Amino acid sequence: MLIYEFRVLLPMTTEEYQVGQLFSVAETSKNETGGGDGIEVLINEPFKSEKGIQPPGMPGNFTEGQYTEKIYHISKKVPRFLRMVAPKGSLEVTEKAWNAYPYCKTVLTNPGYMKENFELSITSMHIDNDQGMQDNVHGLTKEELAKRQIVYIDISKHQQQLPNRSDYKAHEDPLKFHSDKTGRGPLVGPEWWRLMKNHGMPVMCAYKLVRVHFKWFGLQTRVEKMVQNQEERIFTNFHRQVFCWMDKWHGLTMDDIRQLEEKVKKELDDQIKHGSVRGTCAEGD
After folding, report:
1. Rounded Cα distance, 21 and 183, in Å
2. CATH of the domain at 111
């Protein structure tokens, strides 16, 4: 099993990020759905658990929040070599997510084909006034810490430094964006977060721990590395959007978000049946 910890600094509070993240998930879901591929929302409802959802060793008691279950139709989202060897119908991934903010847990599996041979889990902790320097917010064991690889994601990277330069959009560039509502941005300088803090503006960190288990003879190493690269690409693009869409979501309430999610669910059901493939496709396609 591979273990990656992505650390993303953002110019906002965790309370703001909760709204901005959910708004952006809804928007990107629409952008990634069409032509038979994309996201199908099955369940979106509150959950409550006496045992909680955090792994042993983590602080806090995260026992309630929002549960979602989705199916990702990804035939155009993976490299061509994988499509060539994947059996028909196997390129569907089930996502189960527990959002007990500021802690979130997401598990992706392929129950229709790979079953216990594939699991990708993402656990996220969001911390205010944090610059990504905490050593073990996820409560990992010594054995897990020895395997963990830390990847820092700077959302203010120039186009040439992005994981995939073709993802660049000028209107979603933190080096250019200025929020009229909050006065934040553009994010300039090699350590923009220090400048933000010096000017009394908020900085938070999203610690996103990704565990990859993939067992398929001849493809395991290649696919695990592909997943790591793809997660870095997705996290970079997504958090650039969260910041650059700030004036669209800042001031919304959680009630507003739940209404938006219900509306988007209906749109996704229609889009997945019609139109062309959208969003992040594998390189070479």
Report:
1. 19
2. 3.30.530.20
Domain membership of residue 220 as a residue range:
2-271
Say how many domains are in the chain. 1
Domain-located, residue 171: yes
Cβ-proximal residues to 138 (8 Å cutoff; 6+ apart), any chain: 5, 55, 58, 123, 125, 207, 209
**Average pLDDT in the 67-76 region?**
86
Classify residue 149: in a domain, yes or no.
yes
SS3 144: helix
Report the greatest alpha carbon distance in the chain: 55
CA-based end-to-end distance of the chain:
28
pTM of the model as a whole: 0.90
207-222 average pLDDT score: 85
Question: Which stretches of 36-170 are DSSP H helices?
Answer: 80-85, 142-147
User: DSSP labels for 160-197?
Assistant: GGSSSGGG--GGG-TTT---TTT------STTHHHHHH
